[in-house]
Request: fold
Amino acid sequence: MKHELNDLMSLNRPLIKRISQILFALLLLLCAFFLARITWQIYELLFTDNQSINISSNTLSSSKNMTISASRLESATLVNQLLLFGKATESADTPEPMVPAFVPKTDLALTLTGLLTSNDPSASMAIIQHQNKQKSYFVGDKIIGQATIVKIDAQGVIINEGGKQTRLSYSDSSKTISSTKESLKELNEPSTITADFKDELLASPEKLFDYIAISPVKEDNQLLGYRINPGKDAQMFTELGFMPGDLAVEINGVDLKDEIQSLALLSELPEMTELSINVERDGQIYTINLSLNQ
Reply:
């Protein structure tokens, strides 16, 4: 009986081998079918343009609607259900810190010299001077000790000092001046420059930036002008007619709100011997005239 069974297996071995090959081929065809279906769904998602429908996207700041085809929407749903690319982790928006209506000014020895504000709070930047050193800060950065910046906007910087919120603004380091016609007339007269200072600038015009610190001021990516603050010689800075926190908006008739023109002018500034600078101070426009001509 055993001998007969072995003979039967020997006779059917080619048939069994053939059946195995057929089953393997069917399995390959089935895999190819599902792979082709997935590929086609992705192709439709990327390239097919069928009947379009409008979907309003509330995640965009623009008021325009995002247009997507019905076939792409269905394909995207199918691909998403397959989880080919994994499941995205949902992230919650970071809420803006609560700031009271009145915030007292900080007592910290800080000077605000520049601001770059943006609709994205994390992209806003403040340039702050401490111990005669300027540094750029973002929301969350520590300035002195545990004093941390919690908000940056066009009005200045909100600082958390041990649970107490304080503000730092340009006006905190600027002197209050009279906006009478008399003070305006004085500013319009050429500033008195000592002979030694004039000779120094004529010999090395780039030394002007040793006495004047200039930093751009932007709001929502729009250039507002250039903040002017004293450099290494605060006395000479005031003798030139400037005050800490002045916002230069025009030099020799060139509008400093135009980025291309202002950058071109600033590169030529050390070579100029006559300067007529319009600055914004406490909401008023003043003109400061400087002359290096001998």
Helices lie at 2-47, 70-82, 181-188, 195-203, 208-211, 234-239, 259-268. Residues 175-291 form a domain with the Pdz3 Domain fold (CATH 2.30.42.10). Residues 2-47 form the longest helix (46 residues).
